[in-house]
Design a protein that fits this description.
The chain has 184 residues and is an alpha+beta fold. It folds into 2 domains: 1-33; 34-180, no CATH class. It has 3 helices and 12 strands. It has helices spanning 2-33, 136-146, 178-183; strands at 37-41, 51-52, 55-57, 64-66, 77-84, 90-96, 106-116, 119-123, 128-130, 155-162, 165-173, 176-177. The chain has a 5-stranded antiparallel β-sheet with strand order 4-8-7-5-6, with no helix packed on it. Strand 2 and strand 3 (55-57) form a beta hairpin. The longest helix is centred in the first third of the chain and has 32 residues, at 2-33. InterPro entries: GDYXXLXY (IPR025833). It holds the Pfam family GDYXXLXY. This is GDYXXLXY domain-containing protein. It comes from Kordia antarctica.
Length: 184
């Protein structure tokens, strides 16, 4: 009799784990399928540490917001609201400490790291782009070469955003996916 209960509990636990995993996958796949795509221009990176492991470490031009409110602390969570320009590039509309329920803009949750000279600086939550292991080194070199100071290159990250969920799906260098550019 006790074994029956153990098997039932074990089966329920397995089902709960599968349901939780499926829910997470569904949430991100739905965000990608929404076709609500933003382009985030990347900024030049520190050549001493642009990559770690088998992913690309991205730095973005959008990393601060001008405000007169100096009551920000390090590691505060904030809501960054974005619109798109005529070319699909992300434009930061506002940064708020609270969720704006009546906003028409898409948002992501960011973490602030300092307030200095009227600007609150923050990290976007999609700063790592994972690569196939065999292409990582070539991607690192390509990305670093195209983001050095003084070079005029069109490098941006493709990010799908919907209801606060975000998915980084690609990095584009001069119109070519970094996955394809590495092969060339």
């Amino acid at each position: 009799m006790k074994k029956t209960y153990i098997y039932i509990l074990f089966g329920l636990m397995v089902l709960a784990q599968i349901a939780a995993s499926a829910q997470i996958v569904y949430k991100y796949e739905r965000t990608i399928a929404s076709d609500n795509v933003y382009k985030f221009k990347t900024a030049p990176v520190d050549p001493n540490n642009p990559f770690m492991g088998k992913y690309i470490d991205l730095d973005f031009e959008i990393n601060s917001f001008e405000t007169t409110d100096s009551d920000w602390n390090r590691y505060d969570k904030a809501y960054a609201y974005f619109s798109k320009d005529e070319n699909g590039y992300a434009v930061l509309e506002t940064l708020s400490k609270e969720l704006l329920t009546d906003s028409k803009f898409d948002h992501v949750i960011v973490e602030t790291y300092n307030y200095y000279e009227g600007k609150i600086r923050f990290d976007l939550p999609f700063q790592t782009y994972y690569m196939e292991e065999s292409k990582a080194l070539g991607a690192e070199t390509l990305y670093r070469d195209n983001n050095r100071n003084g070079k005029e290159q069109d490098v941006y990250a493709v990010v799908h955003i919907q209801n606060g969920t975000h998915v980084l799906t690609d990095v584009i260098i001069n119109g070519i996916s970094i996955k394809d550019a590495v092969v060339k």
